[in-house]
Amino acid sequence: MNDASTTLSLVTQVSGALAIVVLLIISCAWLARRCGLAGHARAHGSSIAVKSSYSLGQRERLVVVEVDGQRLLLGVTPGAITRLGRLSQSAEAQTVATPDFQLTLKRLLKRGKAEPEQ
Q1: Crossing angle for the helix pair 37-44 and 2-35, to the nearest 10 degrees
Q2: What's the rounded Cα separation, in Å, for the pair 50 and 15?
């Protein structure tokens, strides 16, 4: 009787420790996904970005992908990926300039002084 209870106790301890380790791994993976760490790591190491996608059917789609500054139109099916053409940079991407913070702040401060106090 003593050997059976010792064996049962050992199996219970090992399975309990294994369950704790598995739950810890699952919770760390969930937390990384929730915080965006999993997708963030992939995005920084890649020079490929999917800009847009359009579904043509159940399994067929058109995808615009940017690779090293070039935009490609791809046809994607379950059996193949085909380059359909190269696209020029969109006009809005070329003309959009980052606003100068200092200039914007000066404009807002001038606007605030010009308005009469109430």
Answers
A1: 60
A2: 44
- Return the structure tokens found at 52: 């847009």
Question: What DSSP designation does 89 have?
Answer: P
Q: Are 14 and 21 in contact (CB under 8 A)?
A: no
Q: Which residues contact 59 (CB under 8 A, 6 or more apart)?
A: 77, 78
Do 36 and 10 lie in a common domain?
Answer: yes
Is-contact 77 63, C-beta < 8 A? no
> Is the Cβ–Cβ distance between 99 and 105 less than 8 Å?
no
Rg of the chain over CA atoms, in angstroms? 28
Q: Examine the domain organization and report whether 52 and 85 are in the same domain.
A: yes
Q: Are residues 41 and 23 in the same domain?
A: yes
- The parent domain of residue 4 ranges over 1-46
Q: Mind listing the pLDDT tens digit for each residue in 33-66? A: 888 776 555 555 568 888 888 888 898 999 999 8
